């Protein structure tokens, strides 16, 4: 009898999870993660005590951090436990409905299927962790900062599986693909088409690429007309300008590989 109850509960939870994901994908109108982020974040107005957003969805506390890679300057990897797992505490605020929490939880739990990262519900004695809130837009700080750090997944446009994975990768220490140190070998940036004042979003960072190739299919790669002022491309792949990119619906093999390399999974 207890086995039956457990099986029925597991089936119910699985159905709820899949239903939530199906509904989310339907509502995304087939947009890639970068298109979702641009739609959600483009017209955000910074609150008095809110973070500055750079590269559309990376939170920083002051302008001095804009061009730096916080992980290389202060060692922002989350700590590995003696069992070889990396446990990252999280708390999902009560702003979200049960269906919305299911979408977020699915994104959190997906990491355990391909890495040593284990997002776990926070305990009262945790001194650091992610607080997942519905603030304005979708954004995260890069890497572990100590104490409570917010990951914003606004209810009105950010609750999709790929968006959750994208922001969690930021929290784990990763930047956007188009800011990679070797970007210029793979992407030509057309600053003449970029909205005035948004050029900094294409600044390169001295990233540690974990021995992985540039990945047009990365969930961290923005789409062809990101930050465009005229509908024309702001990025063109080289040497083949026709290569499709910025369309990821979930983490790619390279995303997973570099995550596992960084955390020595």
Automatic annotation (TrEMBL):
Classification via PANTHER family: DISCOIDIN, CUB, EGF, LAMININ , AND ZINC METALLOPROTEASE DOMAIN CONTAINING, METALLOENDOPEPTIDASE
Example GO molecular function: metalloendopeptidase activity
InterPro entries: MetalloPept_cat_dom_sf, Peptidase_M12A, Peptidase_Metallo
Listed cofactors: Zn(2+)
Gene: LOC117554390
Note describing how the cofactor binds: Binds 1 zinc ion per subunit.
The entry's keywords: Hydrolase, Metal-binding, Metalloprotease, Protease, Signal, Zinc
Record-listed Zn(2+) binding positions: 166, 170, 176
The protein, known as: Metalloendopeptidase
Origin superkingdom: Eukaryota
One Pfam family cited in the UniProt record for this chain: Astacin
Active-site residues (renumbered): 167
Catalytic EC class: hydrolase
PROSITE patterns named among the record's database cross-references: ASTACIN, PROKAR_LIPOPROTEIN
Enzyme Commission identifier(s): 3.4.24.-
Annotated signal peptide: 1-24
Domain Peptidase M12A: 67-265
GO biological process per UniProt: proteolysis
């Amino acid at each position: 009898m207890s086995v039956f109850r457990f099986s029925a509960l597991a089936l119910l939870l699985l159905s709820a999870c899949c239903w939530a994901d199906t509904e989310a994908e339907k509502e995304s109108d087939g947009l890639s993660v970068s298109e979702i982020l641009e739609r959600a974040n483009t017209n955000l107005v910074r609150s008095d005590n809110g973070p500055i957003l750079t590269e559309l969805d990376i939170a920083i506390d002051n302008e001095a951090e804009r061009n730096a890679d916080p992980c290389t300057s202060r060692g922002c990897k989350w700590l590995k436990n003696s069992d070889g797992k990396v446990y990252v505490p999280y708390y999902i605020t009560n702003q979200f409905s049960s269906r919305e929490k299911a979408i977020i939880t699915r994104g959190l739990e997906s990491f355990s299927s391909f890495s040593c990262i284990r997002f776990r519900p926070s305990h009262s004695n945790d001194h650091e962790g992610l607080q997942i809130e519905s603030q304005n837009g979708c954004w995260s700080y890069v890497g572990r900062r100590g104490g409570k750090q917010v990951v914003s997944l606004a209810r009105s446009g950010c609750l999709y599986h790929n968006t959750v994975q994208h922001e969690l990768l930021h929290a784990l220490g990763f930047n956007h693909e188009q800011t990679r140190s070797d970007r210029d070998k793979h992407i030509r940036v057309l600053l003449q088409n970029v909205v005035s004042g948004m050029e900094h979003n294409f600044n390169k960072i001295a990233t540690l690429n974990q021995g992985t190739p540039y990945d047009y299919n990365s969930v961290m790669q923005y789409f062809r007309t990101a930050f465009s002022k005229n509908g024309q491309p702001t990025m063109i792949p080289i040497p083949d300008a026709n290569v499709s990119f910025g369309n990821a619906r979930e983490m790619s093999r390279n995303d997973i590989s570099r995550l596992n390399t960084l955390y020595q999974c």
